[in-house]
Write a structure and sequence with these properties.
103 residues; 80% helix
Length: 103
């Protein structure tokens, strides 16, 4: 007579499956929260970039600098404002509208 290997019972398999499902659910929740934090941080950075480019344009066109420096300042600020708007296209449009109004 040879000894038969013991098979795990169905209740053990079910318990392991439930624990694995709980672990997967917990991990998915963490990834979802991380994604939300990354998107919020990106929106804040885009809004700040828009505000700073608006301020740079205001300084450049304010009449404090000679015309050549004003053109250089405006040329430097314009790509930053268009980069902030184009990077925000995939996110919430109200963020772009509200941040451009505050600039």
């Amino acid at each position: 007579m040879s000894a038969q290997p013991k098979r795990p019972s169905d209740s053990r398999i079910a318990a392991i499956a439930v624990l694995f499902g709980v672990y997967l659910s917990w991990t998915a929740g963490r990834i979802d929260r991380l994604h939300a934090r990354v998107e919020a941080a990106r929106a804040v950075l885009d809004a700040q970039l828009l505000r700073r480019s608006g301020a740079a344009l205001d300084v450049a066109t304010g009449g404090l600098f000679d015309p050549a420096s004003a053109v250089l300042g405006a040329d430097a600020a314009t790509p930053a404002s268009t980069a902030a708007v184009t990077s925000s296209i995939g996110s919430d449009p109200s963020t772009v509208i509200s941040s451009s109004r505050s600039a």
